[in-house]
Amino acid sequence: MSTPEGAPSAPSHRGRSAIIHVVEDDHRDLSVIEVLLRREGFTAIGFSDGETFLAATAEEPPDVVLLDIILPGIGGLETLSRFNQLKLDAPVILLTGQGTAENAFQAMRLGAYDFIPKPFETARLSVSVHNALRTKNLTREVRKLQGELRVHFDFRNLIGISPAITRVFASLERLAESDLPVLIQGESGTGKELVGRTIHYNSRRGEGPFVYFNCADLRQDLLEAELFGTRKTGGKWERANGGTLFLDDISEMASSLQAELLRRVESRGAPPSEEGPSPIDVRIICATRKDLAGEAEAGKFLPELINRLAPFRVVLPPLRGRAGDVPVLVRRFVREFATQEHQPEKQVSSEAMRTLETYPWPGNVRELKNVIRQICVLSDAEVIRVEDLPPSIREARDRPPEVDQAALQEEEDIPISPLKEVEERLIRQSLAKTGGDVNRSASLLGISRATLYRRLKALQISRENP
After folding, report:
1. pTM here?
2. Count of CB atoms situated within 10 Å of the CB of 368
3. Residue among 159, 162, 151, 158 at smallest CA distance from 175
């Protein structure tokens, strides 16, 4: 049994020779297989029936199993079924002199790695064993990475102490327990993708794929092929099978693509033809900077799709609305970058921290993180001071608020009116300008049509005679 090209001459598993269990009731075949495996450097252990094999696996779990399909007692397929219940993650290669299509189908349905008919070719058996070991090692590496991702996206790594953000954090664990779609709304830089990944990796789908798709990244005519694939290639939808599809900037999705997505969601991913592949099992998490209800009222988004995508909605507050969170985030980022750069952790002066707290952070948490990264990388100082901050942040500290400055300049000239009167006057002006067109008036006022209807009723304003 010569070693196949590219296979190691002495296979090992976690620093030891890989253990191969051979379950074969034909003593001659069992002896031949054991000799061939040991010649390649494997530790081969033979069994003549399924019951003995299953009892021994608890004491010395195998890395790969060679299992004859015809055995005395419980038989090969029943042995495979019981072995699966042990969850030992060892690939099983079935051997049989009765290689019927029905046997092959049952074997694959039970999760057999390969199916080799007898009399087997030694080269074929060798290749299958080596490939099974590679698959096992790759599976272990994937699970290790998945474990690291679970740690990285643990709920405890979401940072914030403000009531605005702690309310959000409290809801995320409940969302992770569900399998329904989630809509995450917030300004750019508030952490929508981070929240989406955290929900995914803490859900039952955490070991499945997390597939990211930005609905605004490509030309609209290319989006459908990228998302749903073509006749020749699969798309993001298929790749997310068993996991989560994260649709970023969902509000930018073209109307035609919205209709196709709605069809897929309503049919649970079933293909248009009964002759196609099995339905796709996908959980959808969407993110948007816009109010989808407002987009629907403006005719830019399908209301039916909103109902399907947003049974749960998470609204992430901007950083300027998270009182007390800037110092917490700054210390977290300083510690993180010190670890990455293998440098001592910098301190932040109280004046610099106050300056960071008063800055409005239009780019939210992402902007804050980039600023701290820049300072930590470029500055050799042990303490971050005001002069280390970017000029835009220092200047914002010294600049009086524009509204207050204007008020000081024109304080005596500005007539003060009750808010209700101002609102009524603006609504009447917009209706008069548009000839009573509610849609155009709402657009001029920057509010939704539903909001305008409510205000018309509350203020007793007639569209026909504003």
Report:
1. 0.59
2. 21
3. 158
